[in-house]
Amino acid sequence: MAERPEGSSRKPQGLRERLMRQLWLALALLFVGLGSAGVVLPLVPTTPFLLLAAYCASRSSPALHAWLYSHPRFGPLLRNWRDHRAIPRRTKLLGIALIAASWTWMWITVEPLYLRLTVTAFMAFGVVFLATRPNGPSDERSDDE
């Protein structure tokens, strides 16, 4: 087996590692596309897809990961979550409103009571999660003015 130069810290990747990296990259690009669609299409979320894209990019492409965090539209959302685990107030309110509308529609259209109650529990968890996240530093500054 050939010796690597002493200063070389990069180890050769096996087939499995290369395939996993390509899978992570494909997922990252898919989620960037879905998040981008959420910017222009109503009712399609942006932030969750971008968070997934950033996670997948961190496992596959440092360049894509850096691009996401420095992007003028996506970067602030990602940095706000990474640094403060915060969701902007507008996003929280929209999410809660969409959950309420979905719950109403589900309660009217879904027949079995056990299914309604199960879905209600999951939706309640989502509402509690959104409501308990901080707004973040950008929202707090605008509240003080």
TrEMBL record:
Domain of life from the UniProt record: Bacteria
GO cellular component, one term: plasma membrane
Keyword Transmembrane helix: yes
One of the Pfam families matching this protein, by short name: DUF454
Keyword list, A-Z: Cell inner membrane, Cell membrane, Membrane, Transmembrane, Transmembrane helix
Keyword Transport: no
Segments crossing the lipid bilayer: 23-43, 91-108
Primary location class: membrane
Location of this chain's protein in the cell: Cell inner membrane
Name of the protein in question: Inner membrane protein
Source species: Spiribacter salinus M19-40
